[in-house]
Specification:
2 copies of one chain form a homodimer. The first copy, chain A, is α/β, with parallel strands linked by helices and 332 residues long. The first copy, chain A, has a single domain, classed as TIM Barrel (Alpha-Beta Barrel), CATH 3.20.20. Helices cover 35% and strands 16% of the residues of chain A. The first copy, chain A, contains 12 helices and 13 strands. Chain A has an 8-stranded parallel beta sheet. A 3-stranded antiparallel beta sheet of chain A has the order 1-10-13, with helices on one face. In chain A, strands 11-12 form a two-stranded antiparallel sheet. In chain A, α1 crosses α2. Chain A starts with a strand and ends with a strand. The interface between A and B is medium-sized, with 28 and 28 residues.
Chain lengths: 332, 332
């Protein structure tokens, strides 16, 4: 049994910097024709100069693979001039509430105090990508943030807003309320609940932000993915940390999936007899919604067992050591 | 400022075996006049012979401190003869649903299939101590288990049933439904929510079973403790694991608090202007409910800063390195 995927895209990816960039960039570029690259570095990518420099680093690290990095700026109070200058080089601007996740300390404290920036982004047709969590109780943060999404979507009806890495039934419902909302969802949030994180032994390698939620949330996300909601895209949020930052008294948030995303998804969609839906979820929806034209590649997957490696460099992937039933045979 | 506590009791304690027992037993015995010792060893303490042997080990490890270990048997399908023989040596029998927590693999699969044992325990007046969690979603397990408590309390109205380490508003409410239900609550569940476990960086040293719940659950537990509900007792569930079993890809469940329980509680009750309630919560309720007569000791606490040590042997305590505002000055 086999499956061909054309130009798969990862619409939410962390590539980091320096040695980590060199380890993980090729692991995404080998399978994906393009990816949206997150800007939460230290310091954040919040100027055109830094963005262009990082773009060069990413392309170098990705090597000879046919791979388009779709760059993002870290949201701040940009001027009109800055936005105009940056537009040709970015796919969107990523907004982090201050302190919501890894390296987001310089994020936004008062989201609705930035309306003048959203207004300019709407006029310039620059998409807004949002990490949607409040500072409330960890299981409620995304649900509580839905009011912010409603507010943004209503006040800026032509602004294209992506709810990044959605994890709840509430966020899935929002997709049908507003035409200008779209969302990414990760493979791990289609597969995990909080039970996998703290239900048995606690597993730092499946701990991420937003944290995996309840079974009914996972069911709603999976239903939307399997039905290929037209405004839902695969964004892995693959987020590597060295093992000593994970198996630690203060474990960093992030799940590393880059090299196993496609096998995981094919196995999942196969199990639900929905293989024919996967092309839209991992590429076509994103191409249509963002108007991107990635390099033409074909990923050939076969239904043959693969054991997930225990590590990639210093990074432990999700489900290290577990055997899954599909693997990538060839990329052409 | 100071406080005297008379014969404090820890009504839920894990002392382990061998080297770990030698490290942790003195840390409880130095402050507490007695403690209920949990039987989930490998193999479990499920015969009188093993119980007597473990009692001897515990007493030896506790050293010269005036400290009464109140021993428990691990629940199984005991005969009447076994129960009669064990009764003088135990404070109760601890029931674990199979697989619910550390070393509970040999626990009970079908709780209501053991009615003949509960019937005999009721007749012999042997208390039943229960780890009350279903195998459902981690945040729902205790709430779901409340039906089992209702069932047990209704069918065996003279059986003294302790809901161990309660973590939810639902369990607090149950206390007022049935006269034959009593409960222990841990200091950490009065202080923590799931936010402390996975809300920021993930912290393995505050991961336990049952996992800390929602803010409204903590509020209900704290209110019951501060009002000194007459059937609520302090049971620390202090549960040491070596650091390499905590800062690990499969972190064991358990929070180690033994040497800091009293300072933590005094600080908390002081903050809520309820210092005069603490004696009942840490001793008098347990003495009345179990009819135990511990050695007469007096713990003298003073309002002076103490920094919690980074470790005790190989064990990292809760809040290692944090400074709290009370300390134990003397035990006499």
């Amino acid at each position: 049994m086999e499956l061909l995927l054309r130009s798969p895209l990862d619409m939410h990816l962390h590539l980091r910097q320096d040695e980590m960039l060199d380890v993980v960039a090729p692991l995404s570029a080998q399978h994906f024709a393009g990816a949206v690259i997150m800007p939460n570095l230290i310091p954040p990518i919040n100027s055109l100069e830094r963005l262009l420099c990082y773009t060069t680093e990413v392309k170098r690290a990705a090597g000879d693979h046919r791979f388009d990095p779709y760059m993002t700026l870290f949201f701040r109070d940009y001027t009109h001039e800055e936005l105009v200058a940056a537009k040709p080089f970015i796919i969107g601007i990523k907004l982090y509430p201050a302190g919501a996740t890894t390296n987001s300390e310089s994020g936004v404290s008062q989201i609705m105090a930035m309306e003048h920036v959203y207004e300019m982004m709407q006029e310039l047709d620059i998409p807004l990508l949002v990490h949607g969590e409040t500072h409330g109780f960890v299981m409620d943060r995304e649900h509580e943030f839905c009011d912010v999404y409603r507010n943004l979507a209503t006040r800026f009806p032509r602004l294209r807003i992506t709810m990044e890495h959605i994890t709840t039934e509430a966020a899935v419902s929002l997709l049908d309320e507003f035409e200008n909302l779209r969302a990414t969802v990760t493979p791990h949030h289609l597969l995990l609940t909080l039970d996998d994180v703290v239900g048995g032994l606690m597993n730092p390698h499946v701990f991420c932000k937003p944290v995996a939620k309840r079974p009914e949330d996972r069911a709603a996300l999976l239903a939307a993915a399997l039905l290929t909601h037209p405004r839902l895209m695969m964004g892995s949020d693959s987020a590597p940390h060295p093992v000593d930052r994970k198996e630690s008294s203060g474990c960093a948030a992030g799940i590393f999936t880059a090299p196993i995303i496609l096998p995981l998804l094919v196995e999942l969609f196969d199990k639900h007899n929905a293989l024919e839906k996967l092309q839209a979820f991992v590429s076509d929806n994103a191409r249509r919604l963002y108007g991107v034209e990635p390099p033409t590649t074909t990923v050939h997957l076969v239904k043959e067992q693969m054991t997930i490696p225990m590590s990639y460099g210093s990074v432990v992937p999700m489900w290290a050591g577990r055997t899954i039933s599909w693997r990538v045979a060839e990329v052409s």
